[in-house]
Design goal:
With 475 residues, this protein is α+β, with helices and mostly antiparallel strands. The protein has 7 helices and 27 strands. Bound molecules: fe (ii) ion (2 copies).
């Protein structure tokens, strides 16, 4: 018996020496929405203690933490606190005897007026193509360290967000060095896409600073307030999310408001324009001065301009590319290519440059942050009865009254398609209604009447959307 125990112990010791925890995901970064903090996450394949150290150089002498797994799937995370805003930090994760390193820049001071960040979306399905886009984004912040801030991801991280293997083999694929490098050095801040399905694993791997119990959130970043919308929960007026969004827009004091959502309101074909964005989001953009809406869903780059608001489709992060329809309404430009966007806010101006996987510019624009023109409200016109002409009409041996009606607006222009309601009185009674023709005219015929008797037609109401009518009882 003793021999057995001794053998088992020996085997256990030997196995422990050989079976060492392997990293499965990360390390990767999430910005918790506070410029003195940064969250570092990773996942290993078995229970194992993690050791994290960080500092302002590669000696990692600024602080350290020992991590134990959380949840049920060997995940680790640690939020470093007490960072100096705008400062670059280096970190090292030790798992078993392997080391993984990365860096990040703490978010800027509140008072900073100049920031840079990146945007991409739809990273699903083809990790090789995703890797190419990541390589180019790494180039961007290597050449210009001011871009080492964060990336906004407009959803569809993986093909099937409810399938663990898709997260492992697509977004967190260990065979994609560019993507791994990018994730270790740039916080990825995104919104839910339709491909995230229930969103359970999206929340598992990306515990963003969500509104409690929700999948939408916002945070400040220097002069910008960045808002991430969940389009798979209602955002119609009156819904929780809409009310939160309005309150969020009313309370932020940041001059730049950026919205990130998955399905664009205006885009260039394939998936249609999202009418809920057009109806519910666009009016808020105009009212609260959101100048740029970042979306994905369609796997190409497109930019549409609607009443001074730029609607960007940045869906070329690795997913299978779609054709663009260059005749799409409000389209400024569109191109079928993998890409990402560099955003530079400099005081009152924003510069957005879109690049392909070779670093070539495929679109750029800049605009200022002046308040948009008031929305083109539907002008309320007044309806006017320009003329009523009454007469008899003989048909065989019978007589009818006829009311010939001409409706215009208050400026005298004919109004087509106005619904006119009225009543006959005098020698004939009854209600009548009809619609004006292309000349603004309408002919109403009374029930049968006797010759020589008088009759009256009174217009009781006229209806047409965008118009008002006030009956004049004297006429
Ligand atoms: Fe997509
Ligand atoms: Fe999508």
């Amino acid at each position: 018996m003793k021999k057995h125990i001794a053998l088992s112990l020996l085997l256990f010791v030997l196995l422990s020496l050989y079976i060492q925890a392997e990293i499965k995901k990360g390390p990767y970064l999430i910005y918790p929405g506070d410029n003195s903090r940064m969250t570092i996450l990773w996942q290993v394949d078995q229970t194992e203690t993690g050791y994290l150290a960080w500092g302002t150089d590669a000696n990692y002498s600024g602080g350290s933490a020992q991590t134990t797994e959380y949840g049920k799937d060997h995940q680790h995370k640690h939020t470093i606190t007490g960072l100096t805003p705008g400062t670059k930090y280096y970190y090292r994760v030790k798992i078993s005897n392997k080391k993984y390193t990365g860096s990040f820049r703490a978010a800027p001071q509140d008072s900073v007026k100049d920031i840079k960040f990146l945007v991409y979306g739809d990273t699903r399905t083809y990790p090789d193509d995703h890797n190419k886009v990541c390589n180019q984004m790494v180039n961007t912040y290597t050449n210009d360290p001011a871009y080492q801030t964060l990336v906004c991801l407009s959803g569809d991280y993986v093909g099937n967000g409810d399938d663990e293997s898709h997260w492992q083999d697509q977004y967190f694929d260990r065979n994609q060095p560019g993507a791994l490098e990018f994730q270790a050095n740039m916080p990825v801040m995104g919104c839910l896409g339709n491909h995230e399905r229930t969103g359970d694993l999206f929340k598992k791997y990306f515990p963003y600073p969500f509104v409690e119990g929700k999948r939408y959130y916002s945070f400040d970043y220097g002069p910008a307030h960045i808002i991430f919308i969940d389009q798979y929960e209602s955002y119609s007026p009156g819904s929780d999310q809409y009310n939160w969004l309005v309150k969020d827009l009313e309370t932020t004091t940041k001059p730049w408001k950026i919205l990130v959502l998955h399905e664009p309101g205006w885009t260039a074909g394939a998936h249609k324009n999202n009418t809920a964005v057009q109806e519910h989001i666009q009016p808020l953009c105009l009212k609260y001065g959101i100048k740029v809406v970042l979306a994905g869903h369609n796997h190409y780059y497109a930019r549409c301009e609607v009443d001074g608001i730029q609607h960007i489709t940045a869906g070329g992060g690795g997913a299978p590319l779609y054709n663009v329809d260059l005749n799409s309404p409000n389209l400024v430009t569109a191109i079928k290519d993998f890409h990402f966007c560099e955003v530079h806010i400099q005081g009152d101006r924003i510069y957005l440059t879109t690049k392909d996987t070779k670093g070539r510019v495929i679109d750029s624009f800049d605009m200022d942050n002046s308040l948009p023109a008031p929305p083109p409200s539907i002008a309320i016109q007044k309806l006017k009865v320009q003329r009523i002409f009454m007469r008899y009409k003989k048909s065989g041996s019978q007589y009818y009254g006829l009311a010939s009606i001409w409706i215009t607006d208050h400026k005298g222009a004919n109004v087509v398609g106005a619904e006119v309601f009225g009543t006959w009185s005098g020698s004939v009674t009854g209600d009548a209604q009809g619609t004006t023709d292309k000349h603004g005219r309408l002919l109403l015929k009374s029930p049968q009447i006797k010759k020589g008797k008088t009759f009256t037609f009174t217009i009781t109401d006229i209806k047409k959307p965008g118009y008002t009518y006030k009956p004049n009882p004297k006429k």
